[in-house]
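Dear U.,

For the methods section draft, I wanted the exact inputs and outputs in one place so we can describe them consistently. I've listed the two proteins in the order they'll appear in the manuscript figures. Please don't edit the token lines directly; just add comments below if something needs changing.

First protein:
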Amino acid sequence: MKLYSSKSSTNPQLLKSVSGNSSGNGGLKAWPEFSYELQAVKAVRQNYRPTEEILSLLEDFRCMVNDCVRIGLWENLTSMKSLCMKAYHQLSAYHVPTCYRLTAISRAPGMLRNHRRELKRGRSARVPYVTRPSLTDCYGFRVIHRLVRVPVKKGEYVFIVLNDRTLRTISGRTPRSLTLTANSLSICLSKEVAEIEPVGAIGIDRNLDNVTTADSDGIILRHDLGRATEIKARCRDTKSHFKRNDARIRRRVYGKYGRIQRNRVGWLLHNVSISIVKRAKEKRFGIVMESIRGIRRLYRRGNGRAPTTERDSTHGASTSSRDRSSTRPDGKEYRSPMWQREERV
């Protein structure tokens, strides 16, 4: 969930036109009005079965984004405004509603900036290219009762049925954007919330097997995540047994076990996050998290940070720090195949 405050100067005529259009058909329109209050932003996701019209629209949107990237690379553009001036009229070749042009253009600048950043750092960066069909809309969609109306052509729409959970989530909130993929639907929502002045703080320390919290009252709690680490190690071990030199089959197998890992680990992390946030709301504490940006650079191969070894005085064997960190308090081990292949000194 994100918090933002939309304190900016607005045009009264724009406010009148937007609010007038939002109430014409009885549905919820994205961005119905501007507000000066603090708003919380979240997204709700559900699965659906796409029709041929939706799949064709997703493919057109993917091609539009790639065309915007191509124009940006050819014209050496990275800003949203300059790219919009160059690409907006060229996208008229696609027979889709004009509301999708702006959202397609808005996705390209981020990809172009990341590409330029990698080149400035001297790294070999491939030309950015969108492969998966998707669509993002901020202007044309409507939520009407239990349906989401998506424009496909001028005067033509397709409707997607929302499930009960999505309806409960979007009730009383303002839809901001709609994202469609080949099998899922995601609606970004906003809701005005009261700003709370925290009376304390909860610090979060993220480790491999646990999450430790310490608050201003001196209470320290440890949330065990050993089961999540064990699941990830087991999935890595299963994928390592795949020896067939076929990229298509490997992509399918890795994608399958990747979904299994996410489904088994996601709810564990979700329960820990919910418990921390619930405790912070009850005590009116702010949440402080450590910055782990660039932590992977510390453990790259060849950077001089090899695991340290210690001699066991009882048995005369040496154990590395990786072996010690891979042993749970109950005696069970969950080591990845890479650790199992390490030679003992």
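Second protein (the one for the lower panel):
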Amino acid sequence: MIQSSVYAKTAKGKQEIEKRSFDLPFEARAVLIIVDGIRTVDDYASKYGALGDIRAILADLEKNDFLEPVQHDAATAQPATQRTAPATTPSTPAPTDQLQAATLELRRLLKNTIGAGTDAVGAGADQLLTNALENCATPEDLLAYAQDCASIINVMQNDKAAADFMAEARDLIRSLGDLDSRGDPDPS
């Protein structure tokens, strides 16, 4: 596995998310849910290390046909089969007290949205989500985290709950600075 590899869900992976057809362990299911066809193996390993050996989980998901590598177009060096994330400029970190307040508010929003529904993902979901949130150091990190949570909420509940969560999360994150001028990625 190349650390810069990008993965996308296969039909079997999508079936597992929708129907829990294959009874994946919590860690594997959580990783499968957050795979977006954009981020690399290294991105996941640095952000979701609390789940265990992310590289091994991704390799196992690929081996069992839940994920497939995204092919790259050699001419553009861009993945040919994935959605493209908007270009963003590096963020100036928000003042620590503002970022901490936003982090606490985002945690509250997430808990209110998913409530006791974490059993849809698995027994360690709350800890995973909390650990990933603590790694956020910029408004962009918070936005990426919120998008991952929206993907999980969409699976656990529905599109409307995920969209409502993202709308509130964006409002909260925008209060830290003008995120729109840096490119506000689409949550889908």
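Candidate sentences for the figure legend, describing the second protein: Strands lie at 7-9, 67-69, 72-73, 78-79. The chain has a mean pLDDT of 74.

Thanks,
Y.
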